[in-house]
Write a structure and sequence with these properties.
InterPro entries: PIN_dom, RNA3'_term_phos_cycl-like_CS. This is PIN domain-containing protein. It comes from Antrodiella citrinella. The chain is of the alpha/beta class and about 400 residues long. It has a domain of about 200 residues: 5'-nuclease (Rossmann fold). About 35% of the residues lie in helices and about 5% in strands. The strands form two sheets. A five-stranded parallel β-sheet has the order 5-4-3-6-7, sandwiched between helices. A two-stranded antiparallel ribbon has the order 1-2. A hairpin with a 5-residue loop joins strand 1 and strand 2. The termini are far apart.
Length: about 400
């Protein structure tokens, strides 16, 4: 009997095991079909967060009881039948769900065509980057005289020259690759004598206007008169007259704010610095004169504010290749100090000694620089920094008269 019951019991267990496995697989397939065919979850692009029902189905096991769908407290809803015959509420679809209100205003174009002045390229390049960005529709016209102004301003190491070089690099990257950024053609100008001026002040005539202002205004007037042709070429014609604006800087920034991002003050330099040389073409980037003549020539003006330059490293961070006084050597000369110098420096409290408790810092020298200059050197540096002050250098053996 034992021999007969053994094979029968084994066969029964195998059959039961296969039946349980098939039932488990059927249950899993049914759950997956319900999750896929559920209309209550909606498309994944329309959902900002995962559906609670989807999370519950993914965490539900084979022996757990399925939770009932929650019904809203008020109002009617449309139910969607799923594979198991259960009713689930259909979520309301919103195409603009999760979008910020400011996103629409950023996409609204300022005008159909914008002629930019050199003042905008130098001091308000942030607006130019916004107009060049993907999704905008403005057509940007860069006058040839604005490019000439950038070439005149980008020589040197001043903050103005750095801004001019930054604008030149941006135009080189955009012109040719971006079809909406265009440079003035050689024949795209009107004659200066054909422009009617209004509200001319007493004693000011059209012949007194500088040549670089004339060329820029003539370019803007030509774009105003031929705006329809330019818009048709770009394929953005809407059937109405295009709006053309001439972008000019509102007011020139403070010269001190331009030099602030270059580094520390001139007093921190180990050698006397010469007086800063003012670029004679700096007035072209102010936008003051071009704004007056643009208003008189009946050109619609778009006044923009100056945008800040790129952020630079803080002044308290040492330059690359050097270390601060609290973390090690500042220059190669500190590695050649004698023990007496080190003891003298530690006696002044410049470095942290054994008498300083944890969390405290030693006193720093009042000078704040690498070398403490005597008053005579500081006076000489102030004299050299003045452009109108002449410093006489004595020859060898020459004595100063009392």
């Amino acid at each position: 009997m034992a021999d007969k019951k053994g094979p029968v019991a084994t066969a029964n267990r195998m059959a039961m095991s296969r039946a349980l496995g098939a039932a488990f697989l059927n249950h899993q397939v049914e759950q997956l079909e319900k999750n896929v065919s559920a209309k209550s979850n909606g498309p994944w692009r329309d959902r900002r967060f995962a559906s609670p029902q989807a999370n519950a189905d993914s965490m539900r096991g084979a022996h757990n009881q399925q939770a009932k769908a929650r019904i809203p407290s008020g109002g009617n809803f449309r139910g969607a039948k799923r594979g198991g015959g259960e009713d689930f509420p259909e979520l309301e679809k919103r195409g603009d769900f999760g979008k910020k209100e400011g996103a629409r205003s950023d996409k609204e174009k300022d005008a159909d065509m914008i002629v930019v002045d050199a003042s905008v390229l130098v001091h308000a390049v942030g607006h130019l980057k916004k107009w060049c960005s993907y999704g905008r529709e403005e057509i940007i016209i860069v006058p040839l005289e604005a490019l000439n102004t950038l070439d005149l301003l980008k020589k040197g190491t001043s903050a103005l020259a750095q801004r001019a070089r930054s604008a030149s690099r941006l135009l080189e990257a955009q012109v040719g690759s971006n079809p909406r950024i265009r440079v003035q053609r050689d024949d795209a100008f009107v004659l200066w004598d054909d422009i009617p001026f209004k509200d001319m002040p007493t004693g000011v005539t059209a012949s007194s206007c500088p040549e670089w202002v004339r060329r820029t205004i003539c370019c803007a007037r030509w774009e105003v008169e031929h705006a329809t042709e330019e818009v048709k070429v770009s394929g953005a014609n809407t059937g109405k007259k295009p709006r053309v604006l001439f972008a000019v800087l509102a007011s020139p920034p403070d010269p001190g704010s331009l030099e602030a991002h270059q580094g520390g003050p001139a007093a921190a330099s180990p050698v006397p610095l010469p007086a800063p040389q003012v670029n004679k073409f700096e007035s072209r980037s102010s936008g003051t004169l071009i704004l007056q003549w643009a208003t008189r020539s009946d050109v619609e003006v778009l006044v923009v504010n100056a945008t800040p330059s790129h952020p630079t490293a803080p002044k308290d961070i040492p330059p690359p290749g050097r270390r601060s006084a609290d973390h090690g050597r500042r220059s190669g000369e500190s590695g050649r100090r004698s023990p007496d110098d080190k003891r003298t420096a530690s006696g002044r409290g410049g470095r942290r000694g054994p008498h300083v408790r944890t969390g405290e810092r030693g006193a720093t020298p009042p000078g704040g620089g690498l070398v403490e200059r005597p008053p005579a050197v500081m006076a000489m540096m102030e004299a050299v920094a003045q452009p109108s002050r002449v410093v006489r250098v004595l020859a060898r053996g020459e004595k100063l008269d009392p």
